[in-house]
Amino acid sequence: MLSERLSYLPETLPSFRPCPPAAGRAEWGQLPSSARSRLLAAGEAEAARPLAPLPLTLWLDFIRTGQRAEWEAACFSRRARLCALAAAGVYPDEFAVSAGALLHDIARTEPEHAARGAELLEAIGYPRIASIVRQHHGLDEPEHLDEAAVVFLADKLVLGAKYVGLESRFAESEAKCSTPEARASHERQLEQARALRRRINSLCGKTVVA
């Protein structure tokens, strides 16, 4: 009976997609609010949970004994985590990150250079990169780990072309804060950067941002 039912199926389904592509924001926007809330909640929960360890010893045990249960449990746990994060949009676009990193100081010699750089990029037709550049001196939504957050944090880890780490970078820049507004902005950015560092290290299951 099963073979008879399967014989009616086409050999390929070239236009079939189990879900819209990541770029299909209009299609994703048509999800029922309950489904959207469920996906976002699952992604946020996974983002806050430590990464399951996947030591080489589990693989070696599988090779030696043929028992795959422990290896698969850890591996499948990571796979489920990745699916939840992707469905919730918790993953960066590498091109946008690279472009934002290269262009974030495009107006460095001008006052309010983050906002000015964003204006320049917006004017020539790059609104998404403009948003990243504008936020490298303060994130609109610091709870989101997106392209703007990656560029923002990376900018706070270097001094010139040298990696110095978060605390050293902010200690150096604090001396330049000559007004109450500048000091408040400095403190706000430091708090955002520390929160991002904690979240990224938690996601990776180890210290990758010092």
Structure description:
It is a single chain. This protein has 210 residues and is an all-alpha fold. The protein has 2 domains: 50-90; 94-204, no CATH class. The chain has 11 helices and 2 strands, in the order H-H-H-H-H-H-H-H-H-E-E-H-H. A two-stranded antiparallel sheet has the order 1-2. Strand 1 and strand 2 (162-163) form a beta hairpin. Helix 6 (94-103) packs parallel to helix 9 (147-155) and helix 7 (113-123) packs antiparallel against helix 8. The chain is globular and about 75 Å long.
Taken in chain order, the helices and strands follow as: HHHHHHHHHEEHH
Number of strands: 2
Stretches with pLDDT under 50, minimum 5 residues: none
How many helices does DSSP assign? 11
Strand content: under 5%
Shape field: globular
User: How would you classify the helix and strand content by structural class?
Assistant: mainly alpha
Distance between the termini: 61 Å
Instruction: Tell me about the largest β-sheet.
Output: 2 strands, antiparallel
Task: Write down the Rg.
Answer: 22 Å
The average pLDDT score comes to 84
| Overall helicity | 55-70%
- Could you say how many structural domains there are in total? 2
Strand order of the largest sheet: 1-2
Q: What's a concise summary of this model?
A:
The chain is mostly helical and 210 residues long.
How do the strands and helices of this protein lay out in sequence?
Blueprint lengths: L1 H5 L18 H5 L3 H16 L7 H10 L3 H19 L6 H10 L9 H11 L3 H8 L12 H9 L2 E2 L2 E2 L2 H9 L5 H25 L6
